[in-house]
């Protein structure tokens, strides 16, 4: 028969469980609504580029992706895989299907097909423009899922809101930024979420989904090497720190097997996953994000950790079978044999790798480990602006206040330290290092910074709001506050004696020993620590207000960055006059439109590689080089032509069947990213292949300067190893003043203002009046930003006249020489 006490407690417990389930359901609905609003925020904050300008593709690489997507939607997937593009890298061409990461193209093409099947008439360009904002919302939701697995739903919602607005991610995902990173960041975060989910649950279902998410990441971006290096590092960390479990094995082993097999199906990766070996010291460093990195860069780390985790799993299995004494003997034998085998394998690997000039490392990998390597040996890598190390202000610009919240988030991950929180710590540490090497990798740092900052803010608000609740009048003495808030970490001071008294009540004889052990398991220091979490009321209120103010400052900065800093497309430029007027510079599209309407379809256009994708996509003309930069010799040939005198440059371009040369010039309107500012990179790249091109010939030695200004003197002191100063004024070297790039940029420039004053270099040019003998100007845009020249045809030679003139010249020259040798005759 039930006791009266149990009869009373039964309905009470049922009512408490019902109210708790109702509270959880209501909280789930609120969380869902907040996630929807975060998705709307992530999408809408990236539409400033469309609102302020127009629906247009941005930058350079997105134009190639747009062109490929157009071909895919028009011709189908089979033609896409077999597409040989003869309009790029003339006369070599390019196999598109085997040299691109198809994830972005297939995603946008699928969206376009589904939308049109629903009778929604959207163009391919519109789908490409809005793909990045859509996937930014997906990335925010993935950040919520990941952070929820680490520290709960509150931290997840905060991290999702931060990632939706972080400027570093906005810079690569505004409307019109149709690049691989548009979908890759979502794939990166979602793959990490599935790995942590598998690690927490040990579910083989989530492990399979993790391999599929990794496959999508491989299809989308070369940054997949970050995943396949970071996860083995975390597995190794767990094994070394004694945190091995069956869940860890399930999370890692299927990813290695299925992930590697699926990655081999991507044509741009193929069997490079197992055939090539870039390095073997992956335990110390990661070979990370670059669009041309291959899975081989992480293959050794992947295999080594895969072997180690199986050895550890076997050791745990044998330990459960053998006796302790036999287990020690077996361990001694295995360790002895293993060390001998490992030493032999390492010796062989060292011998093989030492035979390589770069010790088995690729150029981009060495650049990540040594930021000065590319500038010394591979100028084509160093010439890319996004491969340069970032400055300290760029961290504040791209992640803002998150830089100050990340350390607090790391501390929160240690209380307590779990497998998932250790992974997040490892993620932030590696991403911080590599973001300091290449400014492009700030994009990888942004999700980690948002996750850690979300954890820090969530933990801080939990402590502060709980402290305020405990100390409000009429609530402090309520012992159910901690339970109502779902907190097990904070206990009100008035509740501690009651719990101790309840524990000291006389239990039954059978349970007395167990109750005594439970009481002894509660150490006094832990209670002291819990009491310290309850802060004074005034301090808690002030801290909450400061955190709200910090969040408001972050929101204002993010909106400003999205509206002003990252919304302008590079193909359409704007500026404001002193009276507030807006000036639009649409010279790029003007030039490409002229090429499209005034040149033949088969004409070849030469320009620096930055403008190759745009020329092919917008003008539909064949180019020599483009932004793929896969052939250093071909790019060096164009750089050599631009660095050579006019006649030699004409011969180089004529041998490549070039008919038009395009140069970008900003001296009239003050556009700093013109070809004159990039010219030294053309010299360095060309000189790396053709030794007769030497950089010192284009620099003015400090000893030869007629007037040494304070700025020049400071430059000479800061860079003593530089051969001289880069100048375009009257003190420039003859080699510089006579090269093709100088002539094509400054031809007729003096007619603009009568002085030839360059607004970018802030000086008057040195050579103002000259004529072109082998090139003719055919088009210059309204603001002189793009200039197009045509190669003059080769002159017809008259045999008799030519021979006669040559013979007469030779006779006269001989007489002159004789006269010089014998002046007295």
TrEMBL record:
Spans through the membrane: 25-48, 127-146, 152-170, 182-207, 213-237, 249-275, 299-318, 330-354, 395-415, 422-439, 445-464, 532-556
Residue ranges of domain STT3/PglB/AglB core in the record: 602-661
Gene Ontology terms for molecular function: dolichyl-diphosphooligosaccharide-protein glycotransferase activity; metal ion binding
Compositional bias ranges of the Basic and acidic residues kind: 497-525
Cofactor field: Mg(2+); Mn(2+)
Membrane-related topology note: Multi-pass membrane protein
Stretches with biased composition (Basic residues): 796-807
Pfam families: STT3, STT3-PglB_core
Catalytic function, reaction form: a di-trans,poly-cis-dolichyl diphosphooligosaccharide + L-asparaginyl-[protein] = N(4)-(oligosaccharide-(1->4)-N-acetyl-beta-D-glucosaminyl-(1->4)-N-acetyl-beta-D-glucosaminyl)-L-asparaginyl-[protein] + a di-trans,poly-cis-dolichyl diphosphate + H(+)
Pathway: Protein modification; protein glycosylation
Primary localization class, coarse: membrane
GO CC term (a single one): membrane
The enzyme's E.C. designation: 2.4.99.18
Domain Oligosaccharyl transferase STT3 N-terminal, chain residue ranges per copy: 29-452
Keyword list, A-Z: Glycosyltransferase, Magnesium, Manganese, Membrane, Metal-binding, Transferase, Transmembrane, Transmembrane helix
Keyword Metal-binding attached: yes
Subcellular location: Endomembrane system
Region (Disordered): 486-525, 796-825
Family matches, as PANTHER family: DOLICHYL-DIPHOSPHOOLIGOSACCHARIDE--PROTEIN GLYCOSYLTRANSFERASE SUBUNIT, DOLICHYL-DIPHOSPHOOLIGOSACCHARIDE--PROTEIN GLYCOSYLTRANSFERASE SUBUNIT STT3A
Family named by the database record: Belongs to the STT3 family.
Protein name in the entry: dolichyl-diphosphooligosaccharide--protein glycotransferase
Organism: Linum tenue
